[in-house]
Amino acid sequence: MIRNTAGTLVTGSYNNIGGPGYLWTSTDTGRTWTQRSVYPQGRNWSPVAAGSCTDFAPNGKLLVMGNNGIVGDSTSGEWSSNYVTVPVGAGYNDMEFADCNNGIAAGGSSITVTADGGKTWVDKANGALASLFANITSVTYPQINKAYFTTNIGTIYRSINQGTNLAPVFIDNYGGTSTINDLAAVGTDSLWACGVQQTSVSALQRFGLVYRSFNNGVTWDTVKVGPLGNVGTQAQQFVTFRGIEFPSKNVGYACGNRGAVYKTTDAGATWTNISPFPAINISPAGFPNSAVSYTDILALDNNTVFVVGNMFTTANNRRIYKTTDGGANWTDISGNIDLLSGGNLNGILMHDANNGYVCV
Fold it and tell me: Rg of the Cα trace of the chain?
């Protein structure tokens, strides 16, 4: 989920079968949502477009990138999307802009870069990552000369030239058995990444992971977050963390499966479970093995946080929650979004506390 400067919320989904590249937007703090189609329909590529990663350029343009090299963009006012050619084989998991012109989209071994606000894109696919069968899970782009890429093989790379060259700054200390799903950066030297151990590790021994560096990636420490193993109820089992946000150096949030949202107030040294509405989101009545899987989290400040996810029961499967007091209390702002077509909620963009987009 993301937001723009006017406060519009945006979210979407990864699975686009029967509804290619849908976004949902809200301008009333999430009470109601409007479905929008990102790409022109009826083209030969429309059914396989998807809209799995979204971001706002600082000039307000919303860009959406999905599968098969398809990109959509929109400026303020009535939605109008353009089909922009990027590498045909590319599929993207994440996208970020450092400023109005410079953006990076990444996924698999593909890195695609724009320096003109999305008008044109340059293919910087990385052969070394392809040879490792690595999948870029997220990109964090805090400065033009500094971008970070996390992967499913337990590595973090930094680029000082917009993805042309990648230098490893972290290799997980569990023998490459972890998947790193997201990274947050604050200031010039503080980094946090989240993930979980892979299936090559026995489920009885897996746990959620947060990695921290306070010297620009020179050294890292590892914090185990949440339960160990897969025995017991959903709430008693390990968490696969999907998203991490640090609005300041001390306060951070992480979300994942099993209905889990965690918070830290000491720069990630310790974490507290602040999961929204556990009675209905973790092993609800009639569904003992079900729980919400949160896919994205966004923090506007230390206290105002949004989280989106999906659950598979008989009704109300999409979840969008908001807190304005750091997780002490949560509000369900899913509104009518479960009545709209499309797949699972994949991300959120927020302009401010009231307006934003969710993507599918």
Answer: 19
Cβ atoms within 10 Å, residue 10: 30
pTM for the predicted model, two decimal places: 0.78
Please check the confidence at residue 170 and state whether its pLDDT lies above 50.
yes
Q: Which residues of 179-215 are buried (b: 16+ CB within 10 A; e: fewer)?
A: bbbbbbbbeeebbbbbbbbbeeeeeeebbbbbbbbbe
For the segment 130-147, the average pLDDT, to the nearest whole number, is 95
The secondary element (H helix, E strand) that includes residue 321 is: strand 318-323
Of the candidates 197, 305, 330, 196, which has an alpha carbon nearest to the alpha carbon of residue 248?
Answer: 305
- Superfamily, domain 2-359: YVTN repeat-like/Quinoprotein amine dehydrogenase (2.130.10.10)
pLDDT at 35 over 90: no
Q: Which comes out higher in pLDDT, residue 8 or 202?
A: 202
Integer angstrom CA distances of residue 61 from 82, 100, 106, 119: 12, 9, 19, 11
Write down the pLDDT at residue 47.
54
- Written as one letter, the residue type at 272 is T
| Residue 131: both structure tokens together | 């040879």
**Residue ranges of the domains in the chain?**
2-359
Give the C-alpha separation, 265 to 268, whole Å. Answer: 7
| More confident position, 97 or 200 | 97
CA 200-205-207 angle, to 5 degrees, is: 95
Task: Give the pairing type, strands 318-323 and 305-310.
Answer: antiparallel
